[in-house]
Amino acid sequence: MKIKFIIPLLIIIQSCSSSTTNEEHMNKTIEADTVGVQLNYLESFHNRKTVNDLDASLTEYILSNPNRPDSIHTTIYLLPFGNMKPEVEQIISNEIDYLETFFQMPVKILPRITFDEVKQNAQIKTRFVPDSDYGYYEKMKGGAENLREQIEASSFMNKYMIDQKPEDAVAVLGITEHDIYNSSYNFLFGSSSTKNGVGLISTFRLIDYGKQTKYNIRKVVSKQIVNLFSIRNVKDYECLLNFHNSKEELELGEFKLSPRALEKFKYNIGFDYNKRFKELEQIWLEEGNKSLSEYYQKCQK
Asked: Which stretch is the leader sequence (predicted)?
C-alpha cells in the first residue's frame, strides 16, 4: 500500500524593513511506498521484551529523514585505527562477506590509521586508561601495553571520518582496539554522528581473543552500522539493536534484527527480503550455526 504523510511545517519569514515576524503554515505531502515492507508474519519468530510499543514506528522513521544511500552514496566503509593485533585485523577483513550479505550493500575496508598517526595529530585527544580499569583489561587481553591510551571519540571522528569521508560513502565505521571516551563518559563501547553517517566502536572491553572474539566483533560492527542508517536501539524485542552494558550481555545478545527494525532497514536500502534471508541462511549453515540457519530458512516466503 502507499501511505501519505501530512506534515505541518512552520515557516518563519522576517521582513527586511521591520522586526515583525510573519508565520505561515504549509502542509507537505510525502508519499512512501510501503508495499512489501511489512513483516508481521515474523512476529512469532521473535521474543518481545515489552507489552506496549516503545520503539519508533515505520511511519515515524520515514518522517525522520534518515541517512540513506542514493545514486552517489552507495558504499559502507570500515576504518581500522590505532594499534591492532594482526588476528583482529584479519577477523575484520574476513567479515566483509557477512556484512555485505547482512546489509545487501558493498562494504570496503580503508587502510588502517596507525596510533603513531593519531598521536602526531594535534587535533585528536588521547589520555591514559584509568588505572582502575586498565589492570583488569590488560590481564584479560594477556598483556596489552600498546593499548594503554584511550582515544577521544569526537575529535577522531571530526578529523579522520567527517573531514575525509569517501565521496561514495553512505556510512563509515571506525574500529579500534583502543578504549575510547568523550567529555561525558570515561569510556564508550561506541559513538556516532548519524547526520554525518559516521561512527566508531571500541573492542577494548568486548573481546579477550577467545573463541567469541569473531562473533563479538560481528555483533558490534553490525549494530553500529545499522544505527548509522538512523535506526535506533530496540527496546520492544530481543534484537541485535538491544543496548548492552558488558561483554557478557553482548555474547548473550542476538544476531537478528527484530521485524520492526528490519522493516525500517528494508525501506531504507530497498533490498529483497527472500534473497537476504536465503544468503544469510547459507552463511550460518556453513558456519555450523543450525539455529540461525533454520531461522532464516523459516523467514523465507
From this structure: none
* CATH (domain of 113): 3.40.390
Q: Which residue has the cell 541462511?
A: 281
Residue 104 lies in a domain: yes
d(CA 151, CA 158): 13
Is 62 within the bounds of a domain? no
Instruction: Evaluate whether 171 touches 77 at the Cβ level (below 8 Å).
Output: yes
The residue range of the domain holding 186 is 67-229
Confidence label for 32 from pLDDT (cuts 50, 70 and 90): low
86 inside domain: yes
CA-nearest of 161, 171, 180, 166 to 82 is 180
**Contacts for 159 with CB less than 8 Å, ≥ 6 apart:** 121, 123, 124
| pLDDT per position as a tens digit, 59-105 | 999 999 999 999 999 999 999 999 999 999 999 999 999 999 999 99
Going by the DSSP 8-state scheme, the letter that residue 111 receives in this structure is P
Task: Characterize the bridge pairing of strands 75-81 and 190-193.
Answer: unpaired
The pTM of this model reads 0.87
Q: How many domains does the chain have?
A: 1
- The answer as to whether 155 is a domain residue is yes
